[in-house]
Every structure is written in C-alpha cells, then in structure tokens.
Amino acid sequence: MYCYRKVRDDIYWVGGNDRRLAMFEGIYSVPDGVSYNSYLVLDDKTVLFDTVDRAVSEVFFDNLNALLGTRALDYLVVQHMEPDHSATIARVLEKHPETKVVCSRMALGMIKQFFDTDITARTEIVAEGSTLSSGKHEFVFVTAPMVHWPEVIVTYDKTDKILFSADAFGTFGALNGALFADEVDFYNDYTSEARRYYTNIVGKYGQQVQALLKKASGLDIQMICPLHGFVHRSDLGKFIELYDKWSSYTPEVNGVMIAYASVYGNTANAADILACELRERGIKTTVFDVSVTPASDIVSEAFRYSHLVFASTTYNTGIFIAMEDLLRDIAQHNLSNRTIAIIENGSWSPSSGKQMKAILEPLPGMRFIENTVTIKSALNTVTRAGIAEIADELAKSVKAQ
Ligand code: FEO
Questions:
Q1: For ligand 1, is residue 82 a contact (CB within 6 Å)?
Q2: Closest ligand 1 atom, residue 167 Cα
Q3: Nearest to 184 by CA among 245, 243, 233
C-alpha cells in the first residue's frame, strides 16, 4: 500500500525506508535504518527524480501508481547510478514505455552496463546548465562529478527554488514518518548520522563537494531534497556550513580523539591516562576502542576532531588488525590537516608506531607530535611520564589553534 508524502504543492516524496539492512554498502552499520528518496513532480508533464533500492521497490511502485493514476510518466531524471537509487530503473521503464530518461552521458553508459540494454533512443543527455521544463517548473541541471560517482548531476528547480541534491546532504536513518528535518530535532539528534553519512560515503571527495558548494552558492536555494534522509527547508545555512567544514577537512571540535587497539588492556590503560591528563589540562577528549566501535563511527569522529591519537599494540610484527583497517579507512577518505600523536606497544619488538605513521604521513597537511611513546608490555614510571609529555604537547597545540 502506498506511503508517500507531499514535499510541496505538486512535488511528492515517493521513496521508502529500510530498517532491515545491517550494513550499508556492505561496510557501514545503519542501526537506525536508511531511507531511499525518490521525488515525483506532477506538473503538466510528470517527472520522477531517481528511483530506489530494490529493498523498497514495492512501496515505491505503490506510491508511483497511486499518484500517477492513469497519467503517463513523462520523464525519469537519473541523477546518480549507484544501485541504491537506480536498481529499479529497468522496472520503471518496462512499466512506462512512454518515459524519456534524462541523464548525463556517463549515466547512460552505466545504464547499459547495469541493465544490459540500450536506451539511447529514449534518452535525453544533459550537461552543465541544460534545462527541462515540465510546465510550471523549470529545471536546471548542474554536474557534480564524484559527489559521489563521476556521472552525478544535481537539479535546481528555478520555480520553487529547490535543489535535488543526489547523495549530497544525505543522512543515515529511516525517516520514521517525518520527511522534513524541521519535524525532528535534526541538529541534536541527527547531525552525527549526517556526518557519518557524509564522511564515509563522500568524505574522500572534499574537493569535488567544495566545487558543488561553490556552484550552489550562486543559487537561491530554499529547499534541499537529498536521496537519503530528511528534506531541508529551514536552517539551510547551518547544514551548508557543516558541509563546507566537512568537505574542506576543517575540524568542528578543537580537541583530541584517541583511538586505541589493546589486547590485554595495557594500551587501553595508556589511552585512558592520556585522556585524563588532557582533561586535567582543559582539553576536550573522546576515546574509542577500535575493536568495539565500528570504523565508520571513528572515521566520522576523526573528521570532527582537530587532534588525533592512535595507540596500538604490535601484532604479528605489524599493527593490530582493527587499527590497521581503521587507519587505511581514514587514509582512503583523504582526511587532511590534523595533528597526530602515536603510542605503540610491544613486548619484544614494538614497531606498530612507525607503521601507523607510514599510513598517515602521505595525507595532506598532517602534522605529527615529535614524541612517540613506546611501551614495552605495560606502562612504567618512564613511559607514564612520556604520556604526560605527549599530553603537554597536544594541549599546547590545541590551545594554539
Ligand atoms: Fe546513495 Fe552514492 O548512492
């Protein structure tokens, strides 16, 4: 049975919520689910903006059928070809042989790849600045390569001043009946899921997001309709400001995030002591055990904090596995401009510190606290003092920012 919501006048949300998905993209935990948004415009011509993941296809087609009735679906705008938005394209086109597809040239190639079918004859290729009129609405297409795939376009509705933003401005979490961010306490309850979504999904492509923000700054935007999470129609500046920070790798918190890997608790002890020493010096801290907290949460917090500490035992002559995975994840997301301190542990040949540094060093704008604390099995008086020295250096650096 249909379950759609009105966005405004003749525009409807026709997506669905998935609360059974354990791992988004097979990597990112989504304990509160995820929404796949699709938008239908019922103007003189009807226009559908993207489709949905296969998981919510039943309610999506119910929504589409209920709203279209006997009307034709004139246009399907394909902004992004990742299957969480494109998996049902073939079914839409089968059900609606009258529909013309509007997409970038690269997206057309991907449609051929995903569905082994050539729809060139029923496709209108659009590029930067191309327009589409549905009657009352005048849509302008804006290319947004690598936000988050190369074929991506976003769409500006000049009539209602709405930005259909594809993956940009998305948030993890099912909508739970709400559609608009102002129907929930977005900035208290959902910012962390918006940040986790941004940093993990699009975080690598800060430069490309900055390019999109630059283009968007020239538009009068009164509403943002993303492909995941809430529609934003108030406090847009606040969300755009967060996006500007995230995509320019600017920390939100001047403080220290400590992530540790510990097999028998001695490295954990060092991490906790460092956190206490920092708090004694008036510095904000947060601490994560990489064996317990999912990497996507720690990556997100690493984007949030200005200073990062990684503490790991040496394991099979390398870095403890969960820590190595985290560091490679952070490196792959191109995190930049942070100050980093390293603590290593090892009972006979501690070497994780050097290896951790080697992963993070090539990232742009990374600065390292000169001292590395090397623990042999457990802290002693000398290494305990070394932790206090690192706390001094970190506190000085945090306060200097
Ligand atoms: Fe939500 Fe890049 O797809």
A1: yes
A2: 1
A3: 233
Tell me the CA–centroid distance for residue 150 and ligand 1, in Å: 12
Residue 67: the pLDDT is 98
Domain membership of residue 77 as a residue range: 5-247
The string of DSSP letters for 284-318 reads EEEEEETTTS-HHHHHHHHHHEEEEEEEEEEETTE
Task: Using the atom order of ligand 1, give the atom closest to the CA of residue 228.
Answer: 1
Residue 401 domain flag: no
149 alpha carbon to ligand 1 midpoint, in Å? 8
Q: Do 263 and 230 sit in the same domain of this protein?
A: no
Tokens of 240: 């755009």
Q: Decide: 148 in ligand 1 pocket, CB within 6 A.
A: yes
Say how many Å lie between the CA of residue 206 and the centre of ligand 1.
16
Residue pLDDT, tens place only, 140-162: 999 999 998 999 999 999 999 99
pTM confidence score:
0.96
Ligand 1 close to Cβ of residue 227 (< 6 A): yes
In a domain, 400, yes or no: no
* Ligand 1 near 387 CB (within 6 A): no
300-321 mean pLDDT: 98
The reply to whether ligand 1 has any atom less than 6 angstroms from the CB of 85 is yes
CATH number of the domain within which 322 lies: 3.40.50.360
Task: Report the alpha-carbon distance of residue 117 to residue 109 in Å, rounded.
Answer: 10
Among 346, 360, 359, 356, smallest CA distance to 315 is for 346
Q: How far apart are CA 344 and CA 267, in angstroms?
A: 8
Cα end-to-end distance, the chain, whole Å: 55
* Separation of alpha carbons 79 and 167, rounded Å: 9
Q: Tell me the residue type at 352.
A: S
**Distance (Å) from CA 389 to ligand 1 centroid:** 44
